[in-house]
């Protein structure tokens, strides 16, 4: 390791479009376009790109060993032909996994800073994990196989998704949206992304929207705050449009068997180690030296602190660098039953010894690297706290049993996702996933995870903001909302509490504009790819493992010159079936305006099955449809008569042709 002089390099990567974008133009098949639609997924997209000529002596450096860094190593090996021993991962921590953590034991208490709600349209995630050997199944099976085996035989849903009034179930059978709220959501779906720069959620929606079931379900599932990015909420609406009819009871979700570290990091890291990938811990890369030549930018060295000693890592002429920008879990402060966490990051500046330093130093070199201060500069707007409870039998466990789908000790779905207290000042939620949550967890122990969104308010029972509370005080607040606060001593005697206060956990949701986040491969960069939650992609969302893996895949294919596209997000957002069932869900599970007319038009045709079933008997449907049409046109109008006659003739014509 030694310093290096700037040098000229080859030009920026090829102009082949690696990251597909379905929103750029109308796509149609022609002889001049040999590629499939830009958002097509499936086996046809499982092709391996044509091998590129190996570059002698090329090394790959990955800054950060979270899921994005692990994915970059995976795709370099599987699709890029890079040898594992030529890949080195550098991390400031002393363990791989980044934000995908999971640690502890039953005696000291387990800790997980977060959990993973998964979707079957995480196409890049499943592309990777269908090639990673399973954690517990025999050889030949993948993590995907293992995942499907669990979820196909243990459906996820919640019977207690929303609670209020100290443990009573609040009706969550519908999204609780008025017509005005429905139109607000529909208009948001129709808006252009370019028109939402720096717009916030609370600036757009009416005040009454924030008291609907929809908002409690949405914010607690995805961790949105009123003051955060309206653009990101729009992107989430498109990404999860196919799942919106399963939003209320969480039946649209699939969960891993264990915690995020054991379920994903352990098997993927085992594969990478077997391939020879090197990990170097206690290494914080804080700056990159660059040479510039006619608009091209080439990283020539990495400046890092290794075990506290400043070091310069020189890069070879053909080396590539993949670096994480920012961190959701950077600066986490910890507490326990008797100790409140103490935040060690500034409210507006994280300091030099943080995971934001590299991005900040890059941004000082050029505007192409974005504006990190837009994301780290408001801790009060991006902070929330999570709580891990290690529970032996107590009144808390008995209350959990009453709210769960299955017995918590059965190994099957327990709460089916987070349960949210809608009258909690903190917007407190908790969940119990399948148990055991850790492979070596004792049979009589349960792991419960809780978190809250609003950090500046006093609790309903404990008159303090959550960050000022000890674990016992937070446990008391939870017990209060469950209606068992009178049994707190018995609960605390059998519960270990570990706290994690994360100042930047929703920093990626902060309001942003075009240019605030760098592209995966910034303009002119010849050997640098940026990964994670703080880079720009065409249409994908953030705060998911899918988005981290997508950024890694785009970066690897681009820098290695692989002629293979990374498809845009699943085309289900354009599927007429998705649009119809989403319209029904937004209309509180009632037929939306015009739906009965569609039934009358398509009934007895091949396409009848795309329509959600109507609630009334078939005999009443004609009357309902005509009533609906009359609302649009007026019952006595000539147009009304012509249209009802046309509908009857169309149906008769279809039936005649069938005979």
UniProtKB/TrEMBL annotation:
One of its GO terms (molecular function) is oleate hydratase activity. InterPro entries: FAD/NAD-bd_sf, Oleate_hydratase. It is an enzyme of class 4 (lyase). Keywords: Lyase. Its EC number is 4.2.1.53. Pfam families: MCRA. Transmembrane segments: none annotated. The keyword Lyase applies. This is Oleate hydratase. It comes from Sphingomonas abietis.
